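thought: fold this chain, then report.
action: predict
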Amino acid sequence: MESTSGNLKTQWQALKNEQPHLRIRNAAEALGVSEVELLATRCGEDVVRLRPEFANILEGIEQLGKVMALTRNNDVVHERKGVYLNPSLSNPHVGLFVGADIDLRIFFKSWASVYAVTDIVRDKPRHSIQFFAKDGEAVHKIYMTPHSDMTAYESLITKFRQEDQNPGQEVFAWDEEVIEHPDESINTQAFQKGWVELEDTHDFFGLLKKYKVTRTQALRLAPEGNYAVKVDPIAFRKVVTLAAERDTPIMVFVGNKGMIQIHTGPVKRLLDHQEWFNIMDPDFNLHVKEPSLKDVWVVRKPTKDGMVTALECFDAEGKQVVQLFGKRKPGIPELEAWREIIAEVEQQTVLVTPV
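observation:
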């Protein structure tokens, strides 16, 4: 939908008048534009365009103190409060924050723009820094909390403020789709051997690239045994519920084209709201659109520390939307309590493929 920034702003206002609680992501979808195009109509008012010096901006986030990090895709929203510690941002392709609270894997290739945003929520200003991909999709947002240093925030915005504050933002198509080759064209035997001989879970991605298989295809072509077991999507709820009941700390990975955000620790307060299944803890919130979980697998990968077990969840297009592990670190075997939860849920929810 082509539209000048002024026309788009008028259309957005009309939509807000009809649906005052509509979120900007959903408003953009309704208007046929990207989120950043909609946001940029407010540039020069309560939105400030920043220079796209992403690593330098991120280096300064620790000074803001306790903030809330938000990463999402279409079906899962991951919100984690904490301080941005231990950055590793010198690599132009991949960046890291590795802290007990804020744990991120950053893929700069898709990043294109960044804005400082002031929204009014319940009659109070809510400040954030928001990063967007080339196609205008939000890849990461950082929200100030009552514990954040607003002086440091204002200083950061002033430092990276771009001279051009005219409304509007150009976006480009960003196609990351991986072409799935026919199963019979894959060297399945060699791929399976590589899987069985893994020594680190991080090497799995390289294995997929080497044999040119998509992730869901890899699960179909897994080695014999219980390396990949397809389960009913209800398994996600069951695993999270048992982890909460048994106080078993887990790892929750949620990502999009530009970011993976990880929570490590216990989960406690589980709530349902319409089609969303939610974790609502003081420093960690997760919102999962449960009907969108179409393919769910129990996946096991060998490592030097023994087998590592994950629950991997995919949407209807085969995109991974959320992944669960038991809390672990390299050099430490997987939690037995986590294995027991997975084994129990797997037995209850396993899907038997017809011969």
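thought: worth noting. The longest helix spans residues 5-18.
final: tokens above.
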